[in-house]
Amino acid sequence: MVSIYGKTKLEVEEKLSEARRARRRGEAKAPVSLTVGRYLEDWQQQGCPGKHGGLRPYTLRRYRAVIEHQLIPYLGPIRLVELQPADVERMLQQLRFDGKAAYTAITVRSVLRSALSRAERNGLVSRNVAKLAGVESPPRIRPTVLTPAAVHLVLDACEAGLRRLVAIAVDSGLRQAELLGLRWADIDFEGRTLTVRATLQRVDREYVLGPPKSETSCRTVALSDLSLKAFRDERETQLMAREAASSRWRETIHGLVFTTPLGAPRNGSSLTHALQKALQASGLRRLRWHDLRAIHGGLLVQAGVGLTTARDRLGHSSIAVTSSFYAGAVDELEREAAEKVGKLLEA
Asked: Can you count the helices (H) and strands (E) in the chain?
């Protein structure tokens, strides 16, 4: 039963008539007592269903963290039918005031927008206020562009095991989860290709193989001699580790290319930390692991590779994404060129 309130009898009668019309249209407004927090809890318990069904385990965990730590603390007590764009904007401003990055605010708004889309489709709310709320644009991040010579300095800074991973990442453009999710069956040494079929994800402290980021992320990537040698060396190292471990060898996921000395999946955060530590020790600039993918894109630009080929190699969702990526890499290369010319003129 839904209660209808108004300051006058006429207002109540108008609201009652609208409620009846909505019911005839198959709509059913949310009960007045339903809060944003209660609705979000129900939404996440159903697996945060979106346009294409349930979310991947890693994405689901990230959505739940946003709901628990940002959305419910800021918007939870507000009644769902009374939520306004101004409420959402105040939350986003408070997040920035609390020191959260602009990208965090965008992610929070995106999760709320997805949740309210379901409420709008089900007739619980008349509009998706998260779509209407303004959000601060994040600062543009310049892509990391390195010359081949600079890439070799990065590789030389890494110990052998890490060097193989970094070499393949820079040479193939794979995302870290794609790289760590590779199995030996995905590597075609004779055909000189690898096929991205899965990603390594950590869910509830356990590693599992999940689907790639998107349909276009499922792709076959040609390999150079550099990557092929790295894969062969990794296979030999793994075979020796398996023999040394003997009965202690435990493959929780069968056939992974990159494992610990005891057969377990590699931890992405630990790899990133090892890379940054190696670069710092060699006096080189700090890099995120994702920067290796950007470096690959920059090398494609320097090699004159076309947009369509680059899109397919990187697994971008559209040519527009690749075009924007390329434009950023070109801008960075031009900026570095201008600085070098300026230094020559100053000499």
From this structure: 15, 5
Cα 158 from Cα 279, distance rounded (Å): 8
Distance CA 330, CA 316 (A): 18
Our measurement of the distance from residue 278's CA atom to the centroid of its chain's CA atoms, rounded to an integer in Å, reads 25
Which backbone phi and psi does 265 adopt, to 5 degrees?
Answer: -65, 155
- Structural domains in the chain? 20-132 (1.10.150.130), 148-346 (1.10.443.10)
Binning pLDDT at 50, 70 and 90, where does residue 47 land? low
Q: How many residues does the chain have?
A: 347
- Report d(CA 344, CA 68) in Å as an integer: 55
Asked whether the whole model's pTM tops 0.85, one would answer no
Rounded Cα gap, residues 123 and 139, in angstroms: 36
In contact, 108 and 92? CB cutoff 8 Å:
yes
pLDDT, one tens digit per residue, over 281-292 is 999 999 999 999
pLDDT exceeds 70 at position 25? no
Give which of 296, 172, 311, 149 is closest to 231, Cα–Cα: 172
Higher-scoring residue by pLDDT: 341, 13:
341
Q: What is the DSSP letter of 195?
A: E
Note the pLDDT of residue 52: 46
Distance CA 318, CA 315 (A): 9
